[in-house]
Amino acid sequence: MLGNCIRNYIFKSERLKKLYLEVPYYNYRKLFYLLYKILSIWYDLYMTLHTRNRVMTGVLVFSLLAVCSIGILAFYSISHQIFRFPSGDSFGAVSLFYFAAPYSFPAVLISICFLTVSVPVITGLMMAHFAKTQSQECLYFALFLLACLTESIRLFIPFLGLWKSNASFLITSTRIFFFGRLLAPASFLFSSIFSIVGQTQGSERNSGVLFAVTGVIALLIPVNTTRILPNCTVGIGFIPFFWVYELTLAVLTFVSLLLEAQNNGPERKRLAMGFLLLFTGYILLIQTLSMFSLALGIIFFASGVYLYLVNLHQTYL
After folding, report:
1. Residue 121 — pLDDT band, cuts 50, 70, 90?
2. What is the CATH number of the domain that holds 295?
3. In the chain, how many domains are there?
4. How far apart, in whole angstroms, are the C-alpha atoms of residue 117 and residue 128?
5. At what angle are helices 26-79 and 105-130 packed, to 10 degrees?
6. pTM of this prediction?
7. Measured between alpha carbons, how far is 152 from 135 in angstroms, rounded to an integer?
8. What residues does 223 pair with on adjacent strands?
């Protein structure tokens, strides 16, 4: 059956069909099947790794440009006295991870800057240690890093003094960072599911579908520019849906990684723990309103990234 499938695929090309018919013996035909299959797998793997490395390079370059742009914007905002703190009527906003600690606007800024700066650092480390491995999880992790980078758009609110503005820029920026928050858990879910079923050759296609679907959802979400929260975010509709979405995808990812660990050794179990720490830290950082939640978020995020990437690298050694 496998031979017939390969033969049918070969016959789609006139050159391969001609070469196939010129082979005189059945044993040589079997050898041709084998060689052709090996070459096909090698070519698909090469193209997939090439695509993955290009995506990681793009994320690295784009994140470095974003960091430089934010630095220039911060200098311009402070030097021209455009920078504005949030107004007092915004302090009553309720966050899912609002701890019993005083509100700290510097903590909000530090959390955004931490996520932004961590993207080029982590991407550079991944390119140094994963460039020649066959790990397709790196492609989905690069999408997660891109989702972290979208949080930097929130800095435009204090740097440009947009707390009381009803500008269309707020609508666009809100859709951008909300797209990132939809993309972050979905990228991990796609990584865990497709690694279980063994579908690694189409990872670039799967990531493209993921990118498109989350982008469409972000475009459809209603935005309330009259309600700007003290963590530099704009009010959006369907907040319960968003948290159900985040929690559901995180649980599914954790469970799928644990199921995979039953057949692939203890590294996958530690990978699941790394994801749990990493994603918890990510949620804490994007919802930071105090120094306490900031400290917890940085600890969880950093330890989770380390545990996740180290065990992912050991899996493919």
Report:
1. very high
2. 1.20.1070
3. 1
4. 18
5. 150
6. 0.78
7. 28
8. 236
**Residue 75: how many other CB atoms lie within 10 Å:** 11
Q: Rounded mean pLDDT of 265-273?
A: 79
DSSP letter at 236 equals: E
How many CA atoms are closer than 13 Å to the CA of 45, on its beta-carbon side?
11
| Secondary-structure breakdown of the chain: helix, strand, coil percentages, each rounded to the nearest 5 | 75, 5, 20
Distance between CA atoms of 145 and 119, rounded to whole angstroms? 6
Per-residue pLDDT tens over the stretch 215-255: 888 888 888 877 788 888 888 877 888 889 989 999 998 88
Question: Is 38's pLDDT higher than 50?
Answer: no
Q: What are the tokens at 142?
A: 């690069």
Q: pLDDT value at position 198?
A: 52
Cβ atoms of 224 and 237 closer than 8 Å: yes
Choose among 180, 186, 121: nearest CA to 148.
180
Helix (H) or strand (E) holding 131: none
Q: Which residue has the higher pLDDT, 182 or 127?
A: 182
Q: How far apart are CA 130 and CA 134, in angstroms?
A: 8
Give me the domain span that covers residue 84: 2-315
